[in-house]
């Protein structure tokens, strides 16, 4: 059985296998974390001062050997202009998907500090330092910078680390918008309730299934064919203008991995644009119907005006006939 896409939402995609991870005792993967960050930035907390970094991109940046490699990957995010940057990290040290633990590294521009929110003490220390070093230039951190360990609730099992990352991310964003808990990096560990947050995440995904399932955005119209053609041209363009020129550099392998990431974004954006165009087409049809009705009303109104003119003419003739009759009496 194919692992079909069940949600296509902005730059994130969830498959059937991803949904199974929403229930305990499962470890959240980077796809679910990416989806929740897309949800926060587009639905609940749309604030340009907050930067959300996709965990797949974090992994690529963390493994960069040179600062210019990281800068090239992060340039479009404009992180140096953000007040807060959320960086989900794991302990995987290769270029492959994997790892055994998630934690959250957050850059606070006002205090010029990286803060590490880690639900398992003394873990991910190496990953946090390596990530901070890779992000420092793009984020505008002055060297030397500090990495502060936040006081957080310890996870009670081996699989809730991803939920801790999402719950803490959500709380920091909310408190940043309201100005609450500013003195403690917009965070209160007493407000972390993982079981409730898991239920909340499941409800969010369930709600999105109704709106962003591929069946809601797919179309058999020429728009779909145009989307496929665009994907092919995009793949060719990326190959010719990105992969080939950087062949002389040592970053080729990393850029190959990043290309797949960017193509996924392009495909999702095409699907989103196609859906919006279909909606616009439906609205155009409704407008055409309304314009037709309006035209008919204008015709009816003109006919009524003609009838009123005739009635006025008949009325004047009747008045003249009555006056003429009265004079003969």
TrEMBL record:
InterPro entries: BLOC1_su2, Nep1/2-like, Papain-like_cys_pep_sf, Peptidase_C48_C
Ubiquitin-like protease family profile domain mapped to chain residues: 12-172
Keyword Hydrolase belongs to the record: yes
Keyword annotations: Hydrolase, Protease, Thiol protease
Keyword Hydrolase: yes
Transmembrane region(s): none
Domain of life: Eukaryota
Similarity remark: Belongs to the peptidase C48 family. Belongs to the BLOC1S2 family.
Record's protein name: Oidioi.mRNA.OKI2018_I69.XSR.g14736.t1.cds
Source taxonomy: Eukaryota, Metazoa, Chordata, Tunicata, Appendicularia
